[in-house]
Amino acid sequence: MTAAVVTGVGASLPQRVVTNEELAGYLDTSDEWIRSRTGIGTRRWVDTGVSTGDLATQAGELALRSAGVDRVDAVVVATTTPDRLCPATAPEVATRLGLTGISAHDVNAVCTGFLYGLASAVGLIAAGNASSVLMIGAETFSTIIDPKDRGTAVIFADGAGALVLRAGSADEPGAVGPLVLGSDGSLADLIQIPAGGSRQRSSGEEAAPEDYYFRMRGREVYRHAVERMAGSAQEALLRAGLTMSDVDKFVPHQANARISVAVGERLGIRPEQTVSNVERVGNTAAASIGLLLAEATATGELRGGQRLLLTAFGGGLTWGATTMVWPDVTAHISSPARPAVALAG
Ligand code: COA
């Protein structure tokens, strides 16, 4: 079967850095609480007027530049925070990239979005419907979090990460390995925006203003996240015919530092194998794995030839994992507030 091979990686972060101290200025929280429970020190939030599509377009442009191409056959945008409820964000992103006319669609799997988006790109290539795909995970979670909810406002953040993939063979560096994906809709209430969708609108009832905000039952989510991320990672290794000893770097969705540590412990991963940027960028949901791949490539922590294990978990509930040998690529990152050379700190 034709494999999908990564040839470029890009990322975009908003300029505005939001510190824990800033949040503690209007929420009943503290830098100490946020750091010890989540590992987050700062996050980026967009300025007024900046949308998910803006970040997605910039990340997409940088990924295309990283791949050295200016055309692809399809654009996939994974997001929980589309520019509008209708239509999808991807067609407009494609047009802004000068790609009007090509296939373009959105994927929503909340924080597992990057891996579900990747599966969509892999599928387009494997079926012969596209020979190259730009896959972007992008979020502006700051637009849906309740500014008064200390349980979510301290965790979620904005950003975009993108990959360019082309048709190739499974033994090439950059080839995406077997993808393990799962879901459990019986737990949809754990992570949700109650209002604004057809269920609330068809009820004929007015929604309370706070029902338009993102909600999460954090403690329950934590338990499911650890179990599902570790389980799907093990299954992805098995399907690829690998064991943990074949893995060089562990690239988990940046939900929070405690979840990454707990999943790593279950898998028998050494702490130095785990790649992380949650301390600086928070949980960027569907963008997080793409953003992490780009940043860790830019700092040299990820290098061509290393075997990666990727896993994610999110609302739905959804989860997933895959493996790949990272290709020799140069990451392009737009982060005006802090240049890429300084990202390692
Ligand atoms: N600052 C201070 N206190 C806070 C707080 C904050 N930002 N957020 C919650 N609290 C309080 C709670 O109100 C609660 O107080 P109480 O005991 O008086 O009721 C206390 O801290 C414990 O709350 P709880 O939610 O049980 O804390 P926790 O140890 O489970 O940590 C999370 C909360 C959100 C950090 C944790 O549940 C978590 O990491 N969940 C997973 C979230 C996640 O990553 N989701 C994304 C998945 S993709």
Structure description:
- The chain is of the alpha/beta class.
- It has 2 domains: 186 residues, Peroxisomal Thiolase, Chain A, domain 1 (3-Layer(aba) Sandwich); 146 residues, 3-Layer(aba) Sandwich (Peroxisomal Thiolase, Chain A, domain 1).
- Helix content is 31%, strand content 23%.
- The protein has a 6-stranded mixed sheet, sandwiched between helices.
- α3 crosses α4 and α8 runs parallel beside α9.
- The C terminus is likely disordered.
Q: Report the span from N to C terminus.
A: 41 Å
Whole-angstrom Rg: 19 Å
Q: Determine the mean pLDDT.
A: 95
Class computed from helices, strands and strand pairing? alpha/beta
Query: Beta fraction of the residues?
Result: 15-25%
Please report the first level of CATH classification, the CATH class of the largest domain. Answer: Alpha Beta
The spatial strand order of the largest sheet comes to 5-4-6-7-1-14
Number of domains: 2
The bound ligands are: coenzyme A
User: What's the tally of helices?
Assistant: 11
Shape verdict = globular
What's the main sheet like? 6 strands, mixed
User: What would the CATH topology of the largest domain be?
Assistant: Peroxisomal Thiolase, Chain A, domain 1
* SSE succession: EEHHEHEHEHEHEEEHEHEHHHEEE
Report low-confidence residues grouped into runs of 5 or more: 336-345
**Corresponding CATH superfamily of the largest domain:** Thiolase/Chalcone synthase
